[in-house]
User: Fold these one by one.
Assistant:
Number 1:
Amino acid sequence: MRRLAVLTVVAGSLLGLPASATARPVAAAPVHYVKTCSPGYVRAVVGGSVKCLHSGQFCSASSQSAYRRYGFVCKPGSDGRNRLSRR
């Protein structure tokens, strides 16, 4: 076991790696996914999930306060269904 550790450090030094990088493997940092929105859309957190908001999209009247926070209002459209529009 010790021989393997020594060989790893020696091999790492030949490759130009520092001894700390070859002695123990380090767990990779977690990757966080960040949702990005297309131009013209607004990134928002509605109901605990990330959404991309745009005028004319269907909306829920129960999330009205979240929509207002991002500059939208949820009101009935010409077809009677709730849709987002800019304030």
Note: The chain has three helices and four strands.
Number 2:
Amino acid sequence: MLKEFRTFILRGNLIDLAVAVVIGTAFTAVVSSLVKNIITPLIAAIGGEADFSGLAFTIHGSKFLYGEFINALLSFLIVAAVCFFLIIKPVNALMVRFKPDTPTDVKTRECPECMSDIPIAAKRCAFCTTRVGPLPLDAA
């Protein structure tokens, strides 16, 4: 049992996941600090409010801290923008650059069940797995 546990712990994807969580946590702290110490004061210089975390309103004794929500929303938007511009855009560019060309002369027909395009010689739809009969001779 200990050997299996050691094998489980030392698997590459588990180690990668642990590192990703640690890096993500550190990145979150950096982004939160950026929002609190740089972005919020910049907005305050324009709008006049120095700290969003103090913004709140009260209804029937219940206090709603909408300033904390604004800080969290700014943090989320910055993380999303960084992920998009530093990860998604470069990976998409690489995928387009190294993607093999698909042949354009492949003849297809429509699946009668899900209306997806499937190769003429297909016996089963790859999308809905419906069996498709042979194409009539006059349609080929």
Note: The chain has three helices and four strands.
Number 3:
Amino acid sequence: MIDDVIKAITQIFAPPLRAVLWKSILLALGLIVVVGIALDRFIIWLLGAGSASVETTFGPNVHWPISALAWLLSFAASLGIIVGSVFLMPAVTAFVASFFADPIADEVEREYYPADPPGKALPIARAVVEGGKTALLAVVVYLVAVPFLLFAGFGAVIFFVATAWLLSREYFDLAAMRFRPPDEAKAFRKHYAGTVFVGGLLIAAFVSIPIVNLATPLFAMSLMVHVHKRLGRRAALARTAA
């Protein structure tokens, strides 16, 4: 696995993948900005509507206290959105990866496995659906984990483990489905669930590093291509021995 990690990190900055790296970074940043602006506008609207309702109920004398409270709440909400973007990054990169999985896998296979048959590119619709499902599930899991952040960091552990589980599933499936039907790819992943999850822990560690995590789709996809290749050969040897 360490060798797989070294290969994946090395290839992130390889010339053939530089264009993919910049595209994935720009798309990830764009999605975070759009989500942040939408949430900020919604919170401001909500606070404005609440302030108007309170003033209507208690009269104009409460205008200044309500305005000050609304400003403080708006500031806190904006700060929360910035902090929340860190938690959203795994979900965002999972969705972004669906657009670039095949170019990344193609390059990894060409560089390290030139003698093997090349993988077959996934239909973009299928890849986007897989990425979208993972992103939505990640948001749900993270919302559940947030209250546990108050309990001595227990929420951080849940967040980290959930990230490893979710991202290991998506990236391994994207790598495996280039060579196997979807059902077979998922069954193969479940058979080697322990190894795949260890890979997911490494991806979760990578995505937890600010700024660096913008390159998560390249690192994670490269890593899981290597893991799938290694497990595929292990399975072939097991069949031969049997």
Note: The chain is about 80% helix and 0% strand.
